[in-house]
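Morning F.,

Quick status update on the modeling queue. The single chain you submitted on Monday has been processed. Sequence for confirmation:
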Amino acid sequence: MLLACMGAEVLKIEPPAADKRSVASAYLDRNKKSLGLDLDSAAGQEILHQLAGRADVLVESFRPGVMQRHNADYPTLSRINPRLIYCSLSGYGQTGPYRDLPGADVTYLAMSGVLDLIGEADRPPAIPLNLIADYGGAAMHGAVGVLLALYARGNSGRGQHVDVSHLDATLSMLAATPLMVPFFDGGVLPRRGQGPYSGRYAFYTTYETQDGKLLSVGSSEPWLWSNLCEALGRPDLSKYSRGPEHLTRGPTPEEAQVREDLQAVFRRRSRDDWLAYLADKNVCVSAVNTLSEVFEDPQVQHRGMLVQHEGSSGEGQLDRQVGMGIKLSDTPGRFRHLAPQPGQHTDEILSSLGYGESDLKTLREQHVVG
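Structure tokens below.
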């Protein structure tokens, strides 16, 4: 989707009898075309080979071995098109003792050690949305890998296999967090509920306001924390800023009391009153928005993060979707068209390969395409 929004022609190949596009896929499949194709059949594999012969990139997310059974693995397709970039997204990668195991976002978080670090110390881990391993991890690493391989092809003229593992990508992101510094430097194991970003320290947490809503405080830098303490009339608390010692422990009783003291302060006003008061104080404070509030936010609207497109039914219906997360000055992305229905572009794609009407009729009767 990221590449499609930036102008790439993206063709999604799916089973001929695929169900109607789901709501979730309405976002992820926008700007794509759809071809219904049976990759178990020899005729379907032949069509895929023709498409691979003219493609720049192929992305697949099956378990290792599935594409080989479809006669569509990297060695096979790279012989047809040596310039092909072939990206495989899988749970554990194309090699190793776990390569054939099933997995889900929570599986990779658990195996990588990420899940053990999320949540409160005396409770089971808090399971986040599937943003980490699936999207922030494998999908983003896959997109970057494809772009790197395309860049390398500009110099070498050759394609290559981009092997991205959900587990590998999650570990890569975990290693970038400050919590891992003591572990790599001295073998000190971080624990759930410890560390400056656990939500237990006054400088990096959420507070309930008078109206029962929430504010987030993210004063990682001492000067931001000092600004907040001054604004709240508690400059005496400035000394309780984030320090290196917080990476390996939870708050002391005195530090925990600071959070309680500020909680009492925040309950004196409503959330929006606090936001108005703190707006010019140079502090890192934000509303904890509900989804209905997010897209009313003036910053979100200014950045074009809510876009509308005429719905598939026409009749003036507008579909709302999230805008482009990447802003390019010369070649900006755009919402060209809604997600296709499964097989919507089958005739168009096969016609471009030289298949005539009689060929299409035969392939449909044989359930090769849909």
